[in-house]
Structures are given as structure tokens and as C-alpha cells.
């Protein structure tokens, strides 16, 4: 690896304008240089640009956060979802390989069909039901086929300070309405970008390559998540919260009924689990 001769370890971040990308960009750790690449600095669907940017930067690790994430829109915008999540990821992987860099690819619980009743281990069979999930899985495969020094990190229900997410949406809706209905029959694990970003940097500096599941500990329904938001937010608007079924909110893309991810592989490799999601949510409100 090309890091041994350098005093500082360089991490390039694609999609640096997004919620996780921005969190990573703002991390300050000694001996670490973060190189944020927003869409303006790097169009991941341009193979030549990927090559020239990484050749110029010579990063030690690339954390690939850039993605097409509009889950419902992807159902009618299949070509674009694949162009970004599959093709773009392949270009990023090829450019990382050429530059001698490791690659961390951020993936999703949507690669599973949601029919399980116990947490999905990292090597559980995938079976995506949405275009978004299929395109992200195609990205995983592109990474696996391109360079051996890769990490695939699947996560779910991401929230953080630097972008729209379930927490900000709930608080906004509560300021506009007296009653909110939230689905109670989809179960998953919330993930705080602040915690995930720190884990990704640890992974980046290791050589424990492979597929990992990284979420905050514990699981809940969206309704239970919403309840916790209004309990823990110090200045939350007063709102009546009602549980409802998924079929009351039909969406173009089917949501996984159960997408809890089993993170045992991280612990086995000596990485610390992310704290319980309620603790993370409390931190989000107090920071």
C-alpha cells in the first residue's frame, strides 16, 4: 500500500455534499486528510474524470458515498439509478484500483427482500425487490469484481445533521399538523451518520476487507422511532402520533417489512459496535 511512506493518510470522499459525505468531510482526526469531492468536483458517471482525479489525488482510501437514493423515483427512472449506482460505482472502483487505493462502498438494507424475522448477517442471500436495491447490489458486484482491497458497508435508516432525514421530516411535519400517522409494521435499525463516519475511518485504516453491516444497536418500527424523536427532542412540537399499516401509505417502491442488519462481523474483526440508536438520537439533539 502507498500509505507507509506518508505522514498523513488521505481519504477521498465521493458524494461529499450528502448527509454521510458531509459528516465524513468534517471529521478532524490527527494524521488524516479528508478530501471531500462533491458532484461539482467529481462526476462519478464520467470514467475519465474518475481516473484523472484519483491519479492526481493519490488517496489511500476512497469512501464512496455518492449514490442515487430516490427510492420511489428509481422505479420509473431505472436507467439513471443504474447509471449512477452500478456504472458510476464501477468507474470509481476502477479508478481507485489504478491509484492503488482501498475502496469503501456504502450499500443498503434494500439489497434484502425484508421477509426475514431475525437480523440479516452480512453473508445472507440478497434478493432486492426495488430498482434502488437492485442498482445498489449491482454496485456491490462491480466493486467485488474490480479490486480485492474493498469494504462493502451496508447500513439503514440513516439520520444526521447534514441533510434531510426521518428525524427532520417528523419535526417539520409536527410543526404543520396536529396528528401524524407513522407505519408500525416495518422494522429496522436507525443509523447516526456521526457514529457511522467514525467507524468508516477505522475501517479505512485497516485491511479487514469484506462485507459489513453497520447500524446503531437495537431495532424499532418507524412509529417507535418517531415516538423516540418526540420524547428526546427538547423543543419538539406537540403532536398526536398514531401507528398505522404500510398499506395505508402505498408507495411506488415496496419497503422491506424487516430489514434489521446483523453487525457481528464487525465485532469479530475487533471493531466496536455502534451505540444503541436511542443514545445516538439523544446525542443528535444535544450536540
Q: What is the 3D form?
A: globular
Output the helix-strand order.
Answer: EHEHEHEHEEHEEEHEEEHEHEH
- Oligomeric state of the chains present here: single chain
Percent range for helical residues?
Answer: 25-40%
Fraction in beta strands: 15-25%
Number of strands: 14
Relevant CATH superfamily:
NAD(P)-binding Rossmann-like Domain
Annotated CATH topology? Rossmann fold
Overall tally of domains? 1
Structural class: alpha/beta
Mean pLDDT: 95
Instruction: Report the C-alpha radius of gyration, rounded.
Output: 19 Å
Distance between the ends: 37 Å
Poorly predicted regions are 1-5
Overview of the molecule:
The protein is built from 9 helices and 14 strands. It is α/β, with parallel strands linked by helices. It has a single domain, classed as NAD(P)-binding Rossmann-like Domain (Rossmann fold). Strands 2-1-3-4-5-10 form a 6-stranded parallel β-sheet, with helices on both faces. Strands 6-9 form a two-stranded parallel sheet. A two-stranded parallel ribbon has the order 7-13. The chain is globular and about 55 Å long.
Search tags:
287 residues; Rossmann fold; six-stranded parallel sheet; two-stranded parallel ribbon; 14 strands; 37% helix; globular
Task: Show the helix and strand layout.
Blueprint: E1 9-14, H1 19-25, E2 32-37, H2 47-57, E3 61-64, H3 78-99, E4 102-108, H4 131-146, E5 150-155, E6 158-159, H5 166-176, E7 179-183, E8 187-188, E9 191-192, H6 193-204, E10 210-213, E11 216-217, E12 220-221, H7 222-232, E13 240-244, H8 264-268, E14 274-276, H9 277-286
Amino acid at each position: 500500500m502507498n500509505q507507509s511512506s506518508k505522514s498523513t493518510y488521505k481519504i477521498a470522499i465521493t458524494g461529499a455534499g450528502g448527509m454521510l459525505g458531509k459528516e465524513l468531510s468534517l471529521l478532524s482526526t490527527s494524521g488524516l486528510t479528508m478530501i471531500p469531492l462533491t458532484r461539482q468536483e467529481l462526476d462519478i458517471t464520467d470514467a475519465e474524470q474518475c481516473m484523472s482525479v484519483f491519479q492526481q489525488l493519490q488517496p489511500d482510501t476512497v469512501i464512496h458515498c455518492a449514490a442515487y437514493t430516490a427510492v420511489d423515483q428509481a422505479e420509473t427512472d431505472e436507467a439513471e439509478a443504474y447509471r449512477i449506482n452500478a456504472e458510476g460505482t464501477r468507474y470509481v472502483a476502477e479508478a481507485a484500483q489504478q491509484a492503488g487505493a482501498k475502496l469503501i462502498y456504502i450499500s443498503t438494507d434494500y439489497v434484502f427482500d425484508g421477509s426475514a424475522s431475525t437480523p440479516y448477517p452480512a453473508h445472507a442471500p440478497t434478493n432486492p425487490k426495488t430498482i434502488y436495491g437492485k442498482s445498489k447490489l449491482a454496485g456491490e458486484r462491480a466493486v467485488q469484481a474490480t479490486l480485492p482491497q474493498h469494504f462493502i458497508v451496508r447500513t439503514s435508516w440513516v439520520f444526521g445533521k447534514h441533510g434531510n432525514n426521518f428525524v427532520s421530516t417528523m419535526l417539520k411535519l409536527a410543526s404543520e399538523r396536529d396528528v401524524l400517522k407513522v407505519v408500525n409494521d416495518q422494522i429496522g435499525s436507525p443509523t447516526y451518520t456521526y457514529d457511522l463516519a467514525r467507524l468508516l475511518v477505522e475501517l479505512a485504516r485497516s485491511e479487514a476487507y469484506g462485507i459489513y453491516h453497520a447500524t446503531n444497536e437495537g431495532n424499532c418500527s418507524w412509529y417507535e422511532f418517531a415516538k423516540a424523536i418526540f420524547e428526546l427532542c427538547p423543543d419538539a412540537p406537540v403532536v398526536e402520533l398514531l401507528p398505522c399499516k404500510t398499506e395505508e401509505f402505498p408507495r411506488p417502491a415496496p419497503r422491506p417489512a424487516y430489514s434489521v442488519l446483523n453487525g457481528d462481523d464487525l465485532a469479530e474483526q475487533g471493531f466496536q459496535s455502534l451505540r444503541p440508536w436511542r443514545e445516538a438520537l439523544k446525542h443528535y439533539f444535544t450536540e
